Amino acid sequence: MVQIFSKALKSILPFFLIVIILLLSGPAYSQSYEQIKKLDTIYIPFKEGKYNVKINFPVERDGFKNRRYVFNKNKKNVYNFEFKKNASQAFEKQIINKTFLKRYKGKIVKINSLEKFDDQDIQCELFNRSKVFYILDFSENKKGIKYRVIFINMCNVRE
Questions:
Q1: What tens digit of pLDDT does each residue of 55-66 get?
Q2: Strand-pair partners of 55
Q3: Are 69 and 57 in contact (CB under 8 A)?
């Protein structure tokens, strides 16, 4: 009886190892530089913390509140996005849900995942002015609020 059990276990073990490896490799998947570069719209999750800061400016006469989102993960690379009133751009603010997060999963780029790339490439190519940026602000609402923002850092070219 023990021999039958050990033979069955030996034949099933490789199958279980393959399944475990596949399950563990899923969360390790991260977006490549080329994938992010091809995106026309980028969604950036924001949760206020030690290095992620949201600056709220005073409310304007019409009730609009400008704000700035600052990502400063490693105290070296700082990324600034602004949510401000602009006559040429539509005001976009929307509460999001889990369905939205699932639908746009491939377009959601976490600032932490960019640490493996060169800062100049991020500023000049990934976050260029031709892209549309949305901050998914989870500090105001647990579901998150989507704000259309502009990237205000400059592309500093090194020689």
A1: 888 877 777 778
A2: 68
A3: no
